[in-house]
Structure formats: structure tokens, C-alpha cells
């Protein structure tokens, strides 16, 4: 079993280099390759120029055992991947009858005439192993050349993913006899990456050699990804669970879930468990918190609605914030955020009300309340908890961070309520 199989992913197309489309293929492919024990070492993008494609193929041959190419397989003249691969391998295009039958059927089912350009999609390099594309006319191709595997796939993401999942990944696993790789992700919130690393340093240093740890921070959250490599899936799962149990006492307060758990889903489950309803009052986040909450299927079971009180007038008329509070303390204050959270809970008749008010930026700050000053609150029938956030200068980042910190405040409030 080879434990160091390397891969390079190459995307082809001027539209990627010009920024006309976003390359999502390499991220997805990298994840899937890692999951089967193949390590991506580089990703590259080249335009629709044969010389550039040939150069990157020669370079990739020196770096990787697997070279995966996406794009350039359409029927038009600017799609040159197949011809360039012929030049690279020193072969000619040959019509593949299986591919031709699929293309013909594709057009017949749609009642469309097929042109010579469409028929040309069935012409493959002579050394290609045809990989059937069930969702389109551009074929997938597998090549074995000088102890390397080359895979050419269509650039359309849903076609590429279908081919990779159903044909390429199983064939790669069989060809290379890849090791078993298992991941376990611990999802934390409310603690910075450096503070987290310091807290778990001794545990991290004691990890077995075949288990690696990665820190993946993202807007107020840090994912701790444990990756174990071996040849026995049951053993790896057991070892990962053991490591989680060892580290959990050190960070339990900040752990909100595992693997694919999202904060808004975890919060929703807590509300459902306690049969509680929720409403939001948002100023600086402009409805973003409500959007995250309602992105969860079934959120109507606990979420009643939101009031986006961007102006002081709405805060007064819709939420019941007292004019004298705004006049004396301002919209961005503990006094105001408390009344917003309590007001939305009362107006929308819910068990819990949460609120945001702050200066998202890039302007609007003052010496005593600079950009990034944000207040959040969570109100229940038992108490109202407020927090002051001191964020940065970037508006989008401040909005996302505020929503995460507020959802975490709600999570902590629900956990405390469970204890009570």
C-alpha cells in the first residue's frame, strides 16, 4: 500500500483566468481525493492555449502520481483539451462507438439534430479509456502513461462530480490500493485559534503519529479536524473517538457540534427540545441572523419572525424601545439592546428574543464607539443577557461575526436553561 500518492488538479479555460466563472471544482476534487488517501500537492489553472496546457502537464508529471484535468471538452473550437492530450501522448483522435451511441441518444431523447461538432465529442485520444458521462455529452477519459494516471473530466460541476463519484474515485482506489483515511471534526465557537491551540497543546503533542490535527478558523468558529490514516476502518474510528474524549474536558464549553453540524442547526435543536419559540430584532445585521436561522429545514417549528429595526423610529414604534433610552445612551448601547431583545419577545409573543445593534462600518464610528462596536442580547422569561463585541473595520466580516456570536449566546442560554 502506497501512503504517499500525490495528485495535481488542473483546470482549463480562459473563463476561469478572466474571473468570469468561479472555480469550485478544485476544492471539491481536493476534498474527495483526500478522503480516499490521495494527497493533493498542487492546483493550477491555464487558459485555452495548447502550449500552456502542454507545459503544465509536463510539470505535473514530475510532481504527481495522479493528474486530474477539468474543462475544455466541449464541441466548439476553443475546447482544445482532447487535441492537446493527443499531442502530449503522441496519439491520434479515434472515434469511440460507445461514446457516439451515448451522444446520439442524448440528442434523440431531446428531439434535437446532431451536428458534426456534436459527433466529434465521441472522438477520443487513442490511448484513452472511455469513462461514460451519464449527465452530459462530454466524455470522461482515463489514461495510464509512464507510471502516472491522467484523468480528463468536463468542467461543468455537476457532470464532473457525477463522473468522479461513480467512476473515477472507485477506479483510483482500486488502482492505487489507497489507505483508509478517516476524519473527525470538532466544531468550536467563541474561542480564538491561538487560545484554543494553547489550551490543547499537551493533548496535541501526544497524538499518535498516524493522527494529524488541523485548525480551520472561520468567522468566530474554529474547526479542529482530526485525520487518521491506516488500514482498518473500525480501529481508526475507535481511535478518533478516544482522542475526542481526551480533549473534550479541555474545551467542552466551546464545543457546539461535530463533523457537519452547523451552529444554527444546533441552536434550533435546543429550541425544539425545550419546546421554545424564538424571534429576532436586528439592526446592524439587517436580517442576516434570521436568514441563518431559517436556512435550517423545519425552523418554522420554533422561529416566529424578525423585526429589522434599522432606524430609531422602528426601534421605538415596533419594539418599544424608550425614546429617552436612545437619547441618553444611543442606539448602540447595552440599555437599547436589552430593550430590543425584550421588546421583540413581547411583540412577537415568543419565549426567547435575541437582538443586534452596532456600527458595522466602514463609517459611522465615533471616538468612544468606533466601527466594530456591537451589542447583542438574549432575553427569556428568566433573564436578559447582554454582551459587548469589539470587532474590526470590515462590514461583511462584522455582520457574519455578530451573527455567530449571537447564535452562540443563544446556545449558551439554552444550555443554562436546560441545567436549571
Automatic annotation (TrEMBL):
Q: Which organism is it from?
A: Spirosoma soli
- Output this protein's name: CinA-like protein
Q: State the SUPFAM superfamilies in the record.
A: CinA-like, Molybdenum cofactor biosynthesis proteins
Enumerate the CDD domains for this protein.
Answer: cinA (cd00885)
Give the MoaB/Mog domain ranges.
Answer: 8-175
Q: Which InterPro entries match?
A: CinA, CinA-like_C, CinA_C, CinA_KH, Competence-induced_CinA, MoaB/Mog-like_dom_sf, MoaB/Mog_dom
Give one Pfam family, short name only: MoCF_biosynth
The record's annotation in Gene3D superfamilies points to: 3.30.70.2860, CinA-like, MoaB/Mog-like domain
State the family it belongs to: Belongs to the CinA family.
Amino acid at each position: 500500500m502506497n501512503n504517499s500518492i500525490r495528485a495535481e488538479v488542473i483546470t482549463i479555460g480562459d473563463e476561469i483566468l478572466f474571473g468570469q466563472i468561479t472555480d469550485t471544482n478544485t476544492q471539491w476534487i481536493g476534498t474527495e481525493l483526500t478522503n480516499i488517501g490521495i494527497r493533493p500537492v498542487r492546483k493550477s489553472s491555464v487558459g485555452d492555449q495548447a502550449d500552456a496546457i502542454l507545459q503544465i502537464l509536463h510539470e505535473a508529471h514530475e510532481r504527481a502520481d495522479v493528474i486530474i484535468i477539468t474543462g475544455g471538452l466541449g464541441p466548439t473550437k476553443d475546447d482544445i483539451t482532447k487535441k492537446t492530450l493527443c499531442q502530449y501522448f503522441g496519439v491520434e483522435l479515434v472515434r469511440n462507438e460507445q461514446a457516439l451511441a451515448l451522444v446520439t441518444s442524448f440528442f434523440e431523447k431531446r428531439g434535437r439534430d446532431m451536428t458534426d461538432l456534436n459527433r466529434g465529442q465521441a472522438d477520443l485520444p487513442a490511448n484513452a479509456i472511455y469513462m461514460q458521462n451519464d449527465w452530459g455529452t462530454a466524455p470522461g477519459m482515463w489514461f495510464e502513461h509512464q507510471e502516472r494516471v491522467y484523468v480528463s473530466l468536463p468542467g461543468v460541476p455537476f457532470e464532473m462530480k457525477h463522473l468522479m463519484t461513480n467512476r473515477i474515485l472507485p477506479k483510483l482506489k482500486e488502482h492505487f490500493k489507497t489507505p483508509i483515511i478517516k476524519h473527525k471534526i470538532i466544531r468550536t465557537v467563541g474561542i480564538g485559534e491561538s487560545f484554543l491551540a494553547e489550551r490543547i497543546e499537551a493533548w496535541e503533542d501526544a497524538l499518535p503519529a498516524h493522527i494529524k490535527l488541523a485548525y480551520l478558523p472561520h468567522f468566530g468558529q474554529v474547526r479542529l479536524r482530526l485525520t487518521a490514516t491506516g488500514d482498518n476502518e473500525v480501529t481508526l474510528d475507535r481511535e478518533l473517538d478516544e482522542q475526542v474524549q481526551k480533549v473534550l474536558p479541555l474545551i467542552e464549553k466551546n464545543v457546539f457540534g461535530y463533523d457537519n453540524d452547523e451552529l444554527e442547526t444546533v441552536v434550533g435543536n435546543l429550541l425544539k427540545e425545550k419546546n421554545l419559540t424564538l424571534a429576532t430584532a436586528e439592526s446592524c445585521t439587517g436580517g442576516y441572523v434570521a436568514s441563518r436561522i431559517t436556512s435550517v429545514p423545519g425552523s418554522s417549528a420554533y422561529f416566529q419572525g424578525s423585526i429589522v429595526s434599522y432606524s430609531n423610529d422602528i426601534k421605538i414604534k415596533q419594539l418599544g424601545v424608550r425614546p429617552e433610552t436612545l437619547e441618553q445612551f444611543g442606539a448602540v448601547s447595552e440599555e437599547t439592546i436589552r430593550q430590543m431583545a425584550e421588546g421583540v419577545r413581547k411583540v412577537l409573543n415568543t419565549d426567547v428574543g435575541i437582538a443586534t445593534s452596532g456600527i458595522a462600518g466602514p463609517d459611522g464610528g465615533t471616538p468612544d464607539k468606533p466601527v466594530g462596536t456591537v451589542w447583542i442580547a438574549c432575553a427569556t422569561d428568566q433573564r436578559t443577557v447582554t454582551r459587548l463585541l469589539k470587532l474590526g473595520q470590515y462590514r461583511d466580516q462584522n455582520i457574519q461575526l455578530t451573527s455567530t456570536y449571537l447564535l452562540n449566546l443563544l446556545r449558551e442560554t439554552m444550555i443554562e436553561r436546560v441545567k436549571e
